[in-house]
Amino acid sequence: MTELVHATHDRGITTLTLDSPGNRNALSAALVGDLADALTRCGEDDDVRAVVLTHTGTTFCAGADLRDPPHPDALVGLLRRIVELRTPVVARVTGHVRAGGLGLLGACDIAAASTGATFAFTEVRIGVAPAVISLPLLPRTDPRALARYYLTGERFGAAEAVRTGLLTASGTDVDEVLAPVLAGLRRASPQGLAETKRLLTATVLETFDRDAADLTALSARLFASPQAREGMTAFLERRDPVWVV
């Protein structure tokens, strides 16, 4: 089987690279499983001080794979694993992010992108809602901005993503942006990182505990609906769905 997530390690930092170019790193059942397993291994390795999550190609993550979508429970589990991991997780984005891919950014502790990256919550355009990914996003991002971008599916850039709290920082060279971040993480004690992350993620985990079951059920119901079938078919056929006026 093709390896969809590659792991490399350098001076306390493990980099996990999404490598599924055939579907623009979309969240297929296989990719979600591979990434969850890779994160579990990182959590069990005392040599891992932090994790960098990045990608090949021009797209960080295109959202759910409509041909092979993960079960909502699996996506909840992946997002929670990022949030609960004892080491910080840093997103490194040099391409575009759509829909479910934004949930990965929301779950990460720090997220940086190049200035050419673009973002969009496209769920409403195919008849569903950003349900499960709201678990890490709602506690961490500007609610008025989320209302706009959730409801319209508009594309926005890295500067706006920073303003809304979706990103920590952006710059022409994302590696220059992240250099002081990674240097700081390498100087921090493992215990200090773990306990500080626990403080920072407490509210997010409360949201998972309270809302995960309801949002998982909502996601499953919407994806099985007639409007979602029309929306996904239209997307795959590269046409407007019937409701576009």
From TrEMBL:
<dbReference type="InterPro" id="IPR029045">
    <property type="entry name" value="ClpP/crotonase-like_dom_sf"/>
</dbReference>
<comment type="similarity">
    <text>Belongs to the enoyl-CoA hydratase/isomerase family.</text>
</comment>
<dbReference type="Pfam" id="PF00378">
    <property type="entry name" value="ECH_1"/>
</dbReference>
<dbReference type="InterPro" id="IPR001753">
    <property type="entry name" value="Enoyl-CoA_hydra/iso"/>
</dbReference>
<dbReference type="InterPro" id="IPR014748">
    <property type="entry name" value="Enoyl-CoA_hydra_C"/>
</dbReference>
<dbReference type="InterPro" id="IPR051683">
    <property type="entry name" value="Enoyl-CoA_Hydratase/Isomerase"/>
</dbReference>
<protein>
    <submittedName>
        <fullName>Enoyl-CoA hydratase family protein</fullName>
    </submittedName>
</protein>
